[in-house]
Amino acid sequence: MKRHLLVVLTLAIVLPPFAILIIAGAGLVAHERAMKEVAHSYVLDLGQSVADRLTSGRAMNRLFMMPNIGMMSPFRWGLSLPGWVAIVNDEGQLLLSSSGVDVDLPRGWRSAIPLGEAVELKGRKGDTFTIAAIPMTESGLYVIAAVSWAQLLGPMLRFSRLWPVLVAITGLAGVLAVLLLWRRLIAPLRALETEVRSLRWGWDLPKEDDPRSIYELQRLRQVLHQLAQSAIERMELTRRYVTDLVRVQEEEQERVAREIHDGPLQGVTALMQQIRLAVRSNSEAELKSHLAIAEKEADITVRELRALCDSLSPPWLDLGLKEALAELADRLSHSLGLEISVEMTEVCDLPRETVLALFRVAQEAINNAARHGRAKHVLVRGFVEDDELVMEVSDDGCGFNPTDDVELLRVKGHRGMANMKERVALIGGRFEVKSYPDKGTSVICRIPLACNVSR
Asked: In this structure, which CATH number among 3.30.750.24, 1.20.1270.10, 3.30.565.10, 3.40.50.970 belongs to the domain 314-448?
């Protein structure tokens, strides 16, 4: 039922006008037939009544003794009913008639007007008349009775003439309404359904407007176009995001490979060289010297490998956010040549993913302050405000004009800023950057809390 609802609605709109036309047409035909039967019955009764009256002996003698044919002498009682009555002979000669509009009898009226039956004829002005001929016994005369439809059936006749016009107007209005409905609603809706069915979401854009459709469908098209545009943008963002992930992974793999090649691998190579030299030693002193150098190289290699492991997966995260940030500040202050201060409120029971996200954000912000902002001092603050953990990383660098458009940041090459924002979003937090040229930068993270806070 729901699948064919549009067809059902269309038929519900189309069928009533056609039903009205059919019923009205049948009613009009029945009305015409009824008027004709009324006129026939009236004319036959009128003619028969006059014929019966004139066939009485006195009336017939008086009729034949009249000196002036055409006078109203036999009908001095007058006709109080609508109609026209005349006396004619076999040749159709008019002997007497009542007052009113005459009806021209056609030649050969005996064949045109069957005796004792009523037929329709046209008057001098085009009016419709019902006429009948009644024979008067054996006198050879005939009573012609006629009545004008306009005189007998005035209101009914006007209604019968107006009725087809009203029906035609109603039918035409219904047809026009159906055509307009089909053109402005049904056809555009079907076109939209076909277009949406073939739409590749995230790749194709539907037409934004359809001038022939109604306003609501135009608005629907605009909304659909906006949704499709958003889907395409999200798809493009996803592709770029995946590309960035792959690029970051490749860069990280290259960095790890470079760190291993330039550090531990060189140490292992030097260690192997010292072992070979120790094997070839000719004296105990020379052997001990090579072994001491090998031990030193092994110690350096172990420390380099441990530092590499710490950078990939910091073990201080298990100590809590405060201790992890303190360790990070100590290590980066030596490697970057910055003065890094940490003022952190201890927060209990933070999930490890939250600690990791804030740790990476602080690490990225400090690196950005040194690399891009040329800062000399960085302050890492953490405190609780309105049931939220707030971490703020501020520097005294050169600053910049920040933007909230992650895609724009990626296009400009600031993937670190975009990654920080996405990390904070993944743990349900809010990320904000406040910066002005020559006035430093502040990176602020707000994370909702559900645990107790101890100071």
From this structure: 3.30.565.10
